[in-house]
User: Fold these one by one.
Assistant:
Number 1:
Amino acid sequence: MTTPPGSPGHLRAVLFDSGGVLMQPIGGRWNPRADFEQTVLAHAPSITPEQFAAAITSGDHFFAASSSTPDHDDYHRVMLHHLGVDPTSRLLADLRREVPPSLLLETYPDVEETLEELSRRGVRMAVVSDAWPNLPALHAGLGIDRFFEAYAISAVLGCTKPDPHMYHHASDALDLAPAECLFVDDDPELVAAAIRLGYAGRALCRDSAVPDVPSLTSLTEVLDFF
């Protein structure tokens, strides 16, 4: 009997979302970075928490209106403008300066063991993420970049999920058909989009209700497909 596409035994790779699947921000906020307030206060010490909250909301609106992940400096300028702070080249450089990823981010407890076992079983892996271009460097700082053969990153490709190009860029880089790839994301709508494109898909719902798409409650359940 022929193994149907998307079923265990037919799959050869996993395409992972990053944020919410592989890693999370220490302190719970993705954007702006956790040290945003501290960095701005070093240049403009009179800014209040209420002003920061309003500025971050303006940044959220800017993000939501962007067709792709915006440039770091443009994103920071929006919030600094809201704060009435001059976006000097020095301040912008301070806001995007490199810091050890382990100070801002952490992998979920089930990530490294799952990736190690997938690698041991010969499963190929890639990342499909709405993120800035430095995502591979962040993964390197967390010690997980070695598992991934390819990255589909929104800021590099100029589009965001659920644009088909995001998914196809990763599977094409692996030289695999969509039906040979399992896509895992914490956003059920993006999983549904992948399924419509012919990928196997699972929504990762560690702490949320199970959606109306096939789902997992732990990343280790990915191993059941291989």
Note: The two ends are 18 Å apart (CA to CA).
Number 2:
Amino acid sequence: MNIFVSGATGFIGSHLIKQLLKLGHSITVNLRPGKETSFNSNVKTHTLGKGDIESDIDFFRREDFDGIIHLASLYITNHKSYEVSDLIDSNVKFGSYLLECASKASVNWFINTGTFWQNYQDEDYSPVNLYAATKQAFESIMQFYSETNQIKTCTLRLSDTFGQNDPRPKIFSLWERIAKSGETLPMSQGEQIIDINHISNVVHAFITLAGHLQNEPWNIKSGAVYALNAEKRYSLKELSIIFERVMETKLNIAWGDLDYREREVMVPWSKGVSIPDYFPVVTIEEGLKELKWKY
């Protein structure tokens, strides 16, 4: 396949690109101005918006992409007022620009990335924060393109993810720090349910979905929303016990010293549809064992 990827330099994107290259696909990534990439010479780069939109549409026509995997987004948990424009520009405006180019250039398919945070309290739609609301807004825009153009679109909504070389300040990074330092970490009661997937499962999900869109498009309804659920969910406290056992370490956690956050997600979205023929390839224990070598 010949695929254009946005957000390729992020945690998920960098792992996805490596696997796509291993499988022999041709990859072009969007590279923001001033952004450097460590990808090898087999990965082409292009900067959208450097010229006018017609020049980008012409570029898409020349490259004749089969599909687009759209990972780029701006994530802010609790936004400040001055960050509203940045959230809309990154999560709504840029994706719309990309869809316009793709549809005008007759690209066959478009995979968007959503979040379980669009489904607070397991609702069909209730945004945890403005970030989640902008992700939902883009899905609505995508529906317009799906209904008025031949491009087939779909969304893969993700919950928590982890894996090697993750620069994000996620829960396993915090626990790694206190395991090494011996410090005490104040946390909530730990009753919230965590749905977390190793990066290998995330990459496998995107590739499985792209394969359907390319080779068996009848399996995917345009505009469909899919969920990547973990094979098993755990409370945060149960997850810490698994971490301690696999890592052979002790976490000094002061459970209950912090209040739950406003709009804390206690139960992740459970109503999502699974990708046809998808199966997880790495368990949480296997994923943690990979991280163990960091200690």
Note: The chain has a mean pLDDT of 95.
